[in-house]
Amino acid sequence: MMKMVKKNKEGFIADESYYVATQWELMWRKFKRHKLALFGSSILIILYIVALFCEFFSPYDIYKRYPKYIYCPPQMIHFFDEEGKFYLRPFVYGLKKKYDPKTLRRKYIADKTKKYPLRFFILGNKYKLWNLFPGDIHFFGVEDGVIFLFGTDKLGRDIFSRNIYATRISLSIGLVGVGISFVLGAILGGISGYYGGTADMVIQRIIEFLISIPTIPLWMALSAALPPRWSSIKVYFAITIILSIIGWCSLARVVRGKFLELKGQDFVMAAKISGSSELRIITRHLLPSFLSYLIVSLTLSIPSMILGETALSFLGLGIRPPAVSWGTLLKDSQNIRTVALHPWLLIPGVFVVITVLAFNFLGDGLRDAADPYK
Prior knowledge:
The protein is of the alpha+beta class. Among the domains are: 93-145, no CATH class; 165-369, MetI-like fold, CATH 1.10.3720.10. The protein has helices at residues 17-20, 23-32, 35-52, 54-57, 159-195, 197-212, 215-224, 232-247, 249-262, 266-273, 278-289, 291-314, 326-330, 336-341, 347-369, and strands at residues 5-7, 13-15, 78-80, 86-99, 106-117, 119-129, 133-141. A three-stranded antiparallel β-sheet has the order 3-4-5, with no helix packed on it. The chain has a two-stranded antiparallel sheet with strand order 1-2. The chain has a two-stranded antiparallel sheet with strand order 6-7. A hairpin with a 5-residue loop joins strand 3 (78-80) and strand 4 (86-99). Helix 5 (159-195) packs across helix 12 and helix 12 (291-314) runs antiparallel to helix 15. The longest helix is centred in the middle third of the chain and has 37 residues, at 159-195. The protein is elongated, with a radius of gyration of 26 Å. The chain starts with a strand and ends in a 5-residue tail after the last helix.
């Protein structure tokens, strides 16, 4: 049977299924045409897969020290040796440590006489995946020698492995924190705008009070209230709650304003006359009417949460060692002299920038896709 076609506004032929598609199908069709959004979502999928299986993707244990390789610079992966010979399996050279007789600085140079081929699915340090399943297979590594793709820190720990582990905490704190703040903002803002009266006055005064407090002193006060003997997991959830307490206010005000604008519209009055409950009116009519803004707010709030955790940990007020996040790793680069001599300590900041950009690209694409008829 031949498919029916029609001309759209631009005069192009469109499949009949376009006109009978659901809103979610239209959103997906338009989202697929946004190249930057697809690129950003691909980056985020890779980062979250790495975060989910960080024990497998990291070549070394994050607490293992290599005293012979303190502040070792990143190693290069080679396909050609010094004679120009091509190797199908990539390799890294060995390292030799020398001291500069003038500055007494420690230097590491490549030992061209030693080649360590890169191998995948190699046996290495034992770990417990999600603290449940024991294993010792790593995604890549070398059988002999060492491989430090991002160099080492002041204790000789592999920065690449520590960044991989930090991805789990930094990315998950964004999802959990935004989930809490989104629910709080949507519910309290909806109650404030839909019902008004005393509820509106109380909620708005609370929002004004929280917004009026300077952010950094508030973070310092709440973080200082955490018991110093708490475990890393307790501190993680406490930081998430702290960021969520601060993050819901702006969303609640926007939701309140939208509810005040829309609750007198004809479609809302028609829903009331037809006997729809208030919960159904809010969830099936009011909230979907400004879905595009909610999606953008949600996707932009996640990088804000990540930046908030990074700032807290950088200042020493957030997640504490031995737990690792991008903020705790950046704390090692507070010393300007250290950064000048060992710039690879700033690599966690690159992960933060990439993640924030990817979320912005994704949010831009979701915003356009949420209005599929435009």
